[in-house]
Design a protein that fits this description.
Strand order of the largest sheet: 3-2-1-4-5-6-7
CATH topology of the largest domain: Rossmann fold
Helix content: 40-55%
Strand content: 15-25%
Bound molecules: uridine-diphosphate-N-acetylglucosamine, uridine-5'-diphosphate
Largest sheet: 7 strands, parallel
CATH class of the largest domain: Alpha Beta
Structural class: alpha/beta
Number of domains: 2
Distance between the termini: 10 Å
Number of helices: 16
Number of strands: 13
Length: 372
Amino acid sequence: MKKILFVFGTRPEAIKVAPLIKKFQENKDYFITKTCNTGQHKEMLDQVLDFFQIESDYKLNIMTENQTLYSITEKIISKLKIVLEDFSPDYVFVHGDTSTTMAASLASFYHGAKICHIEAGLRTSDLRNPFPEEANRRITSVLANYHFCPTNSSKHNLLKENIKEENIIVTGNTVIDALFYGLEKIKQKPHKIQSLKSKLLKNKKNILITCHRRENHGEGILNVCKAIKQLAIVNENHQFIFPVHLNPKILNIVHNELNNIQNVVLIEPLDYPNFIWLMNESQIIITDSGGVQEEAPSLGKPVIVVRDETERPEAVEAGTVKLVGSDTELIINNVQELIDNSSLYNKMSSAHNPYGDGNSVEKIINFFKTYQ
Ligand code: UD1
Ligand code: UDP
């Protein structure tokens, strides 16, 4: 039987690999499956694992406050060596473009395990933007044996880099599998949302905000906050709900700039079911998140992206996502236009599924059962 190790470390990786881990674990006759949690994130990751009921067989516990790229990478490589020697997996699954992804790929390459990269082939034109994610995913592509791409355009990016076509499998994005699973769970257990509902103001339309990327640290997040403040003052019928990332470089600025505005609601990061419920209840989303850009088209929610480049052109082409950057005036103008112009709003809010129909996990496991 083949031995499979899943390595993950941050909130989005855990959300996107959770349905796949569960599927591999169900197939006990084919695979011995273990999980390794690097602990690049702590609270934000643990709540995902709780929701999907996933245990970590190995825990590397690397997170420290204000950690650096050097410390994350160095600790994961040296600690993962011990895990790889203990379990000796045939295949290691990594996801996306975080430092966990890149360091786990390198350690697995040193060990001689085959690397399976989920959400492969996303690209911008600039190695330093997003930083360091664009470099992380390119390094992972060089090391990986199998590349599970969300779309044909991500496959095309890999073909341009001379990756062999027989090792590229287009599957859709597993985030859609996770989203459908989460929406179904909320239907079954609506009481789980009660505590969040009690924190929101009554009879106001919701505008949801998330922001965390390194390129928005400093001036970027300050500009976003200034825009939210102005928009909140002008739009009293709306509430601006901001689950704030735990990174002190984000948290401190957001609380300094947006505290005590009556229609701005600052809350801690939400667990996955609460977050997707809130996305569904929102009129507009302002974000720099990658995962949110993928989920929003399925829910038909217009997204204003506060970044200069995106590796997710499908969502822009689908019309749900608009790339605006982090200039305060541009954010204000674009959000205000969406609030005031109902025909523009209706155009952006039609539902699309550029990232798949929720069957990505099935496609990945079928590939494994057939070819491995
Ligand atoms: C990381 C990823 C980024 C991904 C994001 C998802 C890298 C380099 N960055 O960025 O690609 O989009 O996760 O959210 O891999 N913290 C906590 N508790 C937590 C999580 C974070 O306190 O549960 C704080 C810590 O002080 C930590 C800091 O946030 O040092 C930054 O975490 P880090 O993983 O380095 O960066 P992110 O911005 O979260
Ligand atoms: N998310 C969540 N709670 C929050 C904010 C986001 O569960 O408070 C989910 C969101 O639905 C998406 C993922 O986290 O699936 C995105 O993570 P993040 O924005 O941190 O990282 P990125 O996708 O930008 O790498």
